[in-house]
Amino acid sequence: MTGGLKVYYVPWRPFLMQNTLPTFYGTLPIIRTILIREKISLVHGHQAFSTLCHEALMHARTMGYKVVFTDHSLYGFADVGSIHMNKVLQFTLADVTQAICVSHTSKENTVLRSGLPPEKVFVIPNAVDTAMFKPSPERPGGDEIVIVVISRLVYRKGADLLVEVIPEVCRLHPNAFLIGLAGQRVTHA
């Protein structure tokens, strides 16, 4: 690909939301090959529910690589799914080099869920720097309402809320209504 970007295809069939079944050691040969072939020095994982992320971090740690995990999830502590995922995070993130969260609330949540020491978790805000970006002083004319949503089309990203709010907005404001949606992301190794 252009700009030196390489994409490896891992031939595992996804079973839910582009995630593969956990294999623990099934991905070791291909991940090991990629890490060595590409002379990787740091492995970054993202997405608490990505089995490939967890396995890549685990294999990289075993091979002595530095690993960083980014989390932006605010999962709970009481339901079965959250309890299970918190145990997976504790196992996978047991000795990560560092973790990154997108807010201070997310950091607190990640520290509680994973058992990571707070000094290993850093916050890089996932927001617009309002000092750099200002809305245009010129407002669009008329009564037209334009709403643009850039999001993945999954429940956790608010697609269900969007489906509920569109009819309400259209009933209250029958003027033009535009939605821009980004599609599903594709997970690559």
UniProtKB/TrEMBL annotation:
One Pfam family it belongs to: PIGA
GO CC, alphabetical: glycosylphosphatidylinositol-N-acetylglucosaminyltransferase (GPI-GnT) complex
A single GO molecular function term of this UniProt record: phosphatidylinositol N-acetylglucosaminyltransferase activity
Residue ranges of the TM segments: none
Gene Ontology BP, a term: GPI anchor biosynthetic process
Positions of the PIGA GPI anchor biosynthesis domain: 1-79
Domain of life the protein comes from: Eukaryota
Protein name, UniProt field: PIGA GPI anchor biosynthesis domain-containing protein
Top-level taxonomy: Eukaryota, Viridiplantae, Streptophyta, Embryophyta, Tracheophyta
